[in-house]
Structures are given as C-alpha cells and as structure tokens.
Amino acid sequence: MLTAGLLGAIAGLAALDSLNPATIAGVALILLAPLRRPGLSALAYVAGAYLVVVAVGAGLFLGSAALGDNVAGAATWVRRGALLLAALVLLVSAARRLRTRTRAAVELPAWFGPWTAAPLGVLVTGADLPNAFPYLIAIERLNAADVSRGSGLVVLALYGVVYCVPCLLLLAAGVTWHRQIARRLRRVYDRLGGERVQPRSVPAALGLLLLAVVVAVLALLL
Fold it and tell me: HSE (CB half, 13 Å, CA atoms) of 29?
C-alpha cells in the first residue's frame, strides 16, 4: 500500500531522475535553433518525453504485477544489462581518445518542427530509459509495496511530471527571457556541443578504461 514514506522516496527518485542530460539538452538545443515557434516545439518535445516515461513505467509496473516474483530477477538482469552497455560505451570512448578527431556539432535534424518534436522526445528519452536506475528502483518499490494498479499508475503519472520539471523550467525561462537565456545556453553549447577538434589523450583514455572496468564489476556484483 501507499505510505508517506514510499511517496517521499519515489518523489526523491523522480527528482534525481529529472536531471537527465539528454532530455534537458534537447530542450536547450531547440531554444537555440532558428525555429519559427521554438517554444511550441520544445513543449511538444517535453510532452513526448513525458509520454514515453509514463507509458514505459506503466508497462513495467503492470508487467511486474503479472509476473510476480519473477520480476525481481528480471529487474536485476535489466540493471546488469544497462551497466554492461554503459561499460561498453566507456570502452568505445576510451578507444576514441587514443586518436585526434574532429567532433561533429550536435544539431537538430532537418525535419525537426512542432509536429515532429514529440516523436523526437520519445526517441531521445526512450533510448536513455535503460540507464534510468531511479526509475527502475521506483517501479520495484511500488511492486514490493503491493500498491494497487490504479494507485501505481497515478504515482507513475506524477513521477513523469516531476521528471519533466527541469525541462519545463528551462522552457519557461527561455520563452520569458529569450535573449539572456539563449546567450548563456550558446556559451554552454559552444563548449560542449559545438564542433571542435578533440586531441589525443592517453590519460583520458586510461581514465575512461578504468571507469569502464568499475562499471562492469558493479554490473556483475549487483
């Protein structure tokens, strides 16, 4: 059943999960792009992110209720798979740091607009959900507490709202103070998302390799 402690824990997990760099970066990129209606496009993008968070969460929650005890093992393998995938990504990044390369700028696709923003939000956020450990933990706790299906779906809908709060705040600030926010976002974009030459770095490659090993070990221990 739902308790104040459980709701507080899930709210904390949702707040932690809301600091998702992929989804937030998408909103920032939309606000910087020369679009006719950037606010509407960003809102549609956030709506797509919200829908995929709630839909996937509802599917996992209802599926866990149907599978019962088998879900605990399944969730463990999901976490392990996500960690091993993260370790693989780190290994690839380590290999790339062993040579000088030009990093392409992060840009919106040519077909992007208000009508395609929501599907892009679904794709970007959905692709990152396997690494959303707070999200998986929240669903596990709902299942372990034997929360009813109706109450669980309401909690997951509210979880999605909390998840989107940073994006909505950035969107509101970008629409209200467009010039000031765009100027600051441009500086961040030029540093992190713009095209630049990335020199070869053996120390960085070794650091990424070590991090990949640590993540892989955690995957095997969890």
Answer: 22
Place of tokens 């209200």: 176
Tokens of 20: 């998702």
* pLDDT the model gives residue 196: 65
- Bigger pLDDT: 32 vs 131: 32
DSSP assignment of 94-122 equals: HHHTTS-EEEPPP---TT-STTTHHHHHH
Q: Do residues 91 and 212 touch, judged by C-beta distance below 8 A? A: yes
Confidence of residue 184 (pLDDT cuts 50, 70, 90): confident
The whole-number pLDDT of residue 106 equals 64
Environment class of residue 139 by beta-carbon count within 10 Å: exposed (0-12), middle (13-18) or buried (19+)?
buried
Q: What angle do CA 106, 111, 112 make, to 5 degrees?
A: 65
CA angle 20–172–29, rounded 5-degree value: 50
**pLDDT of residue 76 exceeding 70:** no
Judged by DSSP in three states, 194 sits in: coil
For 139-162, how does the pLDDT look when each residue is reduced to its tens digit (9 = 90+)?
878 877 888 888 889 999 999 999
* Residue-level pLDDT at 19: 87
Please report, for residues 93, 108, 155, the alpha-carbon distance to residue 49 in angstroms, rounded to integers and kept in the order given: 27, 16, 17
How open is the CA angle 4-133-25, to the nearest 5 degrees? Answer: 105
Cα distance from N-terminal residue to C-terminal residue, the chain: 27
**Is residue 31 within a helix (H) or strand (E), and if so which, with residue range?**
helix 21-32
For the chain, list the strands marked E by DSSP. 101-103, 196-198
